[in-house]
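Posting this for the archive.
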Amino acid sequence: MKLVIAIIQPDKVDEVRQALIDAEIGRVTVSRCTGHGRTGDIDLYRGQEVSPNLVPKIRLEIAVNDAFVERTVDTILGSAKHNGGERGDGKIIVVPIDDCIRISTGERGGDAI
């Protein structure tokens, strides 16, 4: 089991969500967040280095069985890019899940996902 975390641009959330549904990946958690990646340039204001501004983003969290990891990643990659890929399009992180428990039934592991 893996947790796929994707940080994407807000204007791509509907497109990514629909692509996930079309790929038969229907369970997703969506939340708003802010952050910044590599800026490349150091901002200076009155002679002092200034941290880059935080930019609004969308965080998707999708728990999947191992068989669905590549499908999930490929679907996000194919739908989250702007014009073939631009700086700031986001990141995808895949982390292992030790266990998953469905609260309503007590099911554990892959069946709970």
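The helical segments are 13-22, 69-80. The chain has a mean pLDDT of 90.
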